[in-house]
Amino acid sequence: MIKKLLKLLKIPILFFSTEMGDRKSSSWLLMIFAFLLVVFIFWSSFFEIEQVVSGEAKVQTNTNLQTVQHMEGGIVSKIHIKTGDLVSTNQPLITLSEVQSSSDYQTSRGEYLSNMGKLTRLEAEFSGVSSIDFPAYLK
Fold it and tell me: Domain segments of the chain: what residues?
């Protein structure tokens, strides 16, 4: 009944076999699975996944537990302490990489300068001036 329905819908029976002894569909499925496994292993050996992981830590003092967090997250470039070290007030525990914050700053600065240029152009257009005199920081 299922084979007749699949033939009417013109769906290949290859993957919908109901017979246990159908070696053709089993071998096809095995070959497809093996191919996908080889492709995945090849891909995973040549490509690296990079991601930023934000986390929370608890610092245990003699009196109580304190939570240490960074507001924006980031990549830890150096850890200044080890387990069991005594820590004093204002002692740096870790150093965060400046790559992300520098990149964010450059992006925001570019948007700011672009918007200031647009504002200068619109003000000149509104005033009816034939040439635009951009501020020195935009040149």
Answer: 2-46, 57-97, 101-138
Strand 94-96 relative to strand 76-79: parallel, antiparallel, unpaired?
antiparallel
Asked if 120 and 135 touch (Cβ cutoff 8 Å), the reply is yes
- 110-138 pLDDT, tens per residue? 999 999 999 988 998 888 888 888 888 87
pTM: predicted TM-score of the whole model, two decimal places:
0.36
Residue with tokens 């470039």: 77
**Identity of the amino acid at 106:** Q
